[in-house]
Amino acid sequence: MRPRHVEAHRIEHAGWLRAAVLGANDGLISTASLLLGVSAAGGDARALLVAGGAGLVAGAFSMAAGEYVSVSSQADAEAADLARERRELADDPAAELRELAMLQQARGLPTALALQVAQALTAHDALDAHARDELGITAQARARPLQAALASAAAFASGAALPLLVCVAVPEAQLRVLLPLGSFALLVSLGALAAQLGGAPRLRAALRMGLWGGLAMAGTWAAGALFGAAG
Ligand SMILES: [Zn+2]
Questions:
Q1: 16: part of which helix (H) or strand (E)?
Q2: Separation of CA 85 and ligand 1 centre (Å)
Q3: Distance 16 CA to ligand 1 centre (A)
Q4: Which tens digits make up the pLDDT trace of 65-120?
Q5: What's the gap in Å between 89 CA and the centre of ligand 1?
Q6: Domain limits, the chain
Q7: pTM of the entire structure?
Q8: 72 CA distance to ligand 1 centroid (A)?
Q9: Ligand 1 centroid vs 75 CA: distance in angstroms?
Q10: Which of 148, 161, 176, 201 has the fewest CB atoms nearer than 10 Å to its CB?
């Protein structure tokens, strides 16, 4: 039974946190840009909600599909590595024991103690010891495609919902002004939040998010205006 870990290290949450914030960021930028483009092309509040809603669903599905495919291939690679390790342990246990002892030595243990530790780990769970020390695969960090896909879709949808809420909350007459302003404020806030949670400087992250998100929104707005003028 693994002892319960008391203090929480930021690194433990970094992985999924970063993915969640990036997903929300994608949702926010792509949907806010889409809404600005439709608005610049002359779309009314209903057109914005339809386009934004479709963008949210399409984006969430594509994020989920992409994440599922990429994490599945990682899971496949992990499973293949573990299967080969299991075979090697069955074919030549003595060589595997020596290998595990050398890994302990490389971590700083003296020769005799390294062998003793390798023998104890092997007796306890040889595959688990080799997976962790040789392949870097641990139970906590195993690839979980479905979990990753759902988390990614949820993150995208939550980011995409923000500018849509602005569309619902703001009177149509003020949409053209408040939608870009509101979306930009959300972007900068998300950037600062991501930095805060990751222990990084907030201002720089906020400015970076504002700059690139602002560029995406401005570019889509310009394209929408062009299409609107051509239409
Ligand atoms: Zn091995």
A1: helix 10-40
A2: 6
A3: 29
A4: 999 999 999 999 999 999 999 999 999 999 999 999 999 999 999 999 999 999 99
A5: 7
A6: 19-223
A7: 0.79
A8: 23
A9: 19
A10: 201
